[in-house]
Design goal:
187 residues; alpha/beta; 4 helices; 11 strands
C-alpha cells in the first residue's frame, strides 16, 4: 500500500477509537515499552501527543521515564525550516499548543541531537521491515537523519504492522522497534 493510502486508512481507524480505548491502548503500549532493552540509556526523546489526532497518549511513558530518573527531551517544530529544536523537560518547562495543536515547550534548556539515545516516534502506520508512514511533513525524517547511527528509534502504534509500504524512499530512516498494545516488533 502507498503511504497516502495508509494515512487515510489509519486516520479512519484512529477516529473510530473511543477515549476509553485510547487510554487503555496507550497504557498497554507503555507496559510493552517496559520490556524493551533500552533502560541503560539516559536521554529519551518523547513526543507529546496531538490529542485531536488521537495519537498514543505518551503520558504513561513519561511517568516510566521519570520514575527511572531518565532525562526527557521534548521538541518544538520550526515550520519554516521543517526542523525540530529539542529541549530538556523539567518541572519549569511551560508547554503550549502551537497553531497545529502540537504541544510544545515554550523555551528551556536546548539539547543537541547528538545527546539523544532513544527516540519515540509518532506514526500512522508501519510495515514488517520497520518503515513508517507519518503525517508526511518530514519533521521526523529530518530529525532521525540528524541522530547518531546508534540512536534507538521506537515507533508507537495502536495497530499492527502492514506487510509492506510500497513507496519507501532511499533516505527514509527505518525504526529499530515498533511497540503496539500486543507486543513489539524488532527490525
Amino acid at each position: 500500500m502507498l503511504k497516502k493510502e495508509l494515512r487515510a486508512k489509519y486516520r479512519t481507524l484512529r477516529n473510530q477509537l473511543s477515549e476509553n480505548d485510547l487510554e487503555n491502548l496507550s497504557l498497554a503500549i507503555a507496559n510493552e515499552v517496559l520490556k524493551l532493552p533500552i533502560w541503560k540509556n539516559t536521554y529519551f526523546h518523547l513526543f507529546l501527543p496531538i490529542t485531536e489526532h488521537k495519537e498514543v497518549n505518551t503520558e504513561f511513558i513519561l511517568h516510566l521515564l521519570s520514575g527511572k530518573d531518565k532525562e526527557i527531551i521534548v521538541s518544538k517544530s520550526d515550520f519554516e525550516s521543517r526542523k525540530m529544536i529539542h529541549f530538556l523537560l523539567t518541572d519549569n518547562t511551560k508547554i503550549k499548543k502551537n497553531e497545529y495543536n502540537i504541544p510544545e515547550p515554550v523555551d528551556g534548556i536546548e539539547v543537541p541531537t547528538s545527546k539523544i539515545d532513544v527516540v519515540f516516534v509518532p506514526l500512522l502506520a508501519f510495515d514488517k521491515a520497520g518503515h513508517r508512514a507519518g503525517y508526511g511533513k518530514g519533521f521526523y525524517d529530518k530529525f532521525l537523519a540528524e541522530c547518531l547511527p546508534e540512536t534507538i528509534k521506537i515507533g508507537l502504534s495502536f495497530f499492527e504492522a502492514e506487510a509492506s509500504i510500497d513507496d519507501v524512499f532511499e533516505n527514509d530512516i527505518r525504526l529499530d522497534y515498533c511497540v503496539t498494545p500486543n507486543g513489539s516488533y524488532q527490525f
